[in-house]
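Pilot study result, target chain (422 residues):
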Amino acid sequence: MKKRLSTSKLAVFLIAAMMATGRADEYSAIEHQRQKLPVAAIVTAYFNNSHADVVVGKILSGYQQDGSPGPDLQIVSVYTDQVPENDISRDKAREYGFRISPTIDDALTLGTNQLQVAGVLSIGEHGDYPQLAETQQTMYPRRRFFDEITATFRRCGQVVPVFNDKHLSYRWDDARAMVDTAREMQIPFLAGSSLPVAWRMPPLELPHDCEIEEALTIGYGGLEAYGFHALEAHQCMLERRQGGETGVVAVRAISGNQIRETETAGQWSSRLFAAARRQMPGAPEDSAQWQPGPESAVFLLEHRDGLRSSVVMANGLAGYFACAFKLKGREEPVATWFKLQEGRPYGHFAYLVRAFEETVHSGKAPYPVERTLLTTGILDRVMHSLANNGERYETPELAITYPSPDWPFANHPESKLLLPND
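Predicted structure:
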């Protein structure tokens, strides 16, 4: 069992480190309740409106990124894998006094032999990285970041919570290894998309152990980058069904003329597609007129418990995420729109930061990383299926089970963080 760094020892280490840099006054007193715990940010690139900006920025300057209240966390170090011309990390370091670290190890230890942070943000999104030739998946270094973080944990004999932004990796084997390592080292591991914690209009929460007969989610955007968000929205609803999550036995992804052909064949539901569309702004009734383009796709999922569900990337029609479900015993579908704040401060990211804050302070992730392990695995098979003309992939490796969490989304009645979303 790895040793977690205690708050008291962390304060001692941090005060010593700050004294060495002339900043001891910032840590001259430890608050009696929920002191701001120090965290490191490991990012691919940090520029205006990047994921690094809209996550780290909410710790630096509040949930609204305007100096208003924010999480009980403090950024003490940032490692940037790339420094593009539009980088803002150096300016932010001068403004807020955090350390620009030359290595991931330095960001976690501040040049010592002990962890000096209570948590680690790993944000492997944006930047100039190659793509796999066959599938066009971007090879973000999320596995490398994780391996270097855990190497420092092993060197120091300590662990702290880690958050991995978005899917775990472009490659299933990496994702599986990351989760297995976190379990072996007893690292509280949080990951995923902002969609599960974003606003829902209406605020639909499926009851635990409901019987889902059909399920469909609509997404838009890039089939890897935004297809992941659609899968996370889909999964955070499906996991509440009767028996809990049991995994996926097969994945197929189709595009072009196959989209309407599979609709006609009943492999995805026109009725649920229309129901999800009606929850979007303006309650559109244009579903039947959609002409799928080359950037559109449908992900067809076969679940271990017999459920079949679908994710429709409706590019050319929809610019929003929404989902719809046919529940046993109910004639009409239930549906919701996942509302995002489309401009600064991109408030839906505040709810990811809130979940990370809870993980750091409690030492326990508020929702299971297995959700994102499953969606990562599905996405990898989706991208390979699209590259191979809609080939069906059996997925025995995705026999992933986990209990459904009760962490509230943005406008859930039990949400403790209320922010504007306009």
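One observation from the pilot: The CA atoms of residues 240 and 404 lie 6 Å apart. A full batch analysis is planned for the follow-on phase.
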